[in-house]
Specification:
This protein is mainly alpha-helical. It has one domain. Helices cover about 55% and strands about 0% of the residues. The protein has one helix at about 5-30.
Length: about 50
């Protein structure tokens, strides 16, 4: 993959992770334990197409 594209993706994810941490910290302090994760609609199929 092109290095410039990778840099753009990393920059975007950096901003998303920073904002996610800010939101997580506020909610954690006010509510309770919070779980979060990323889903980028990228997945791999096995040999059977599943």
């Amino acid at each position: 993959m092109n290095i410039n594209v990778l840099n753009e993706i990393n920059t975007a994810y950096h901003h998303l992770e920073y904002r996610q941490k800010e939101i997580y910290d506020v909610l954690f302090d006010r509510i309770c334990e919070i779980k979060s994760s990323w889903y980028n609609v990228h997945y791999h199929k096995d040999e059977k197409g599943n």
